[in-house]
Amino acid sequence: MPNYTIIKKLLNKYDEPARLKTLEFIKGATNNKDKYGVDILFNGGKYFNKIEVQALGNKKFIDSYKILTIFKRKDKYDKHTLYITYNYNYSSCYIFCRCQLTNTNNYNNVKFSVNENDDLYYLLKKDVLIIRDINKDNFNIDILEKYFISKNTNHTI
């Protein structure tokens, strides 16, 4: 059984600032009032209209990793969802699309999770968009859509 007190503390500490950072740069984005739904909704995106956010709590970002892990529970949203994971101080992020999470990159036996039933997806770091020194020129919906549409070879959005 997940420890909901720990989950709530983690959400308040990391996810709320991640939402605020996303709302700062993605024009037309709004907080989703449905606490069980995706974090952010937005109008004006040609291909994407939902964003799920999270932040890493440690100072090590993804530089030393070749493979990124994503909890299987994150796949509950439709293929028009982008996932943004920020570093500890919200100055960099990596982004992937829901359409990248497939059964071909699904594994189980998670060692570290607040939910004992978690399985994982694995994505190669080369397959995600990495943005460093986030600013209005490199982090906006036009940049995100161009990147993911150009990467979309096997997935229908």
Task: Kindly summarize this structure in a few lines.
With 157 residues, this protein is an alpha+beta fold. The chain has 2 helices and 9 strands; from the N terminus they run αβββββββββα. The protein has one domain (4-151): 3-Layer(aba) Sandwich (Trna Endonuclease, Chain: A, domain 1).
Proportion in β-strands: 15-25%
How large is the radius of gyration? Answer: 15 Å
CATH class bucket: Alpha Beta
Structural class: alpha+beta
Number of strands: 9
Largest sheet: 6 strands, mixed
| Uncertain spans | 110-114, 153-157
What percent of residues adopt helix (DSSP H or I)? Answer: 10-25%
CATH topology: Trna Endonuclease, Chain: A, domain 1
* Global morphology: globular
Number of domains: 1
Order of H and E elements: HEEEEEEEEEH
Number of helices: 2
The appropriate CATH architecture is 3-Layer(aba) Sandwich
The overall average pLDDT, rounded, is 79
Measured distance between first and last alpha carbons: 34 Å
What attributes does this structure have?
157 residues, alpha+beta, Trna Endonuclease, Chain: A, domain 1, 6-stranded mixed β-sheet, 3-stranded antiparallel β-sheet, 2 helices, 9 strands, disordered C terminus
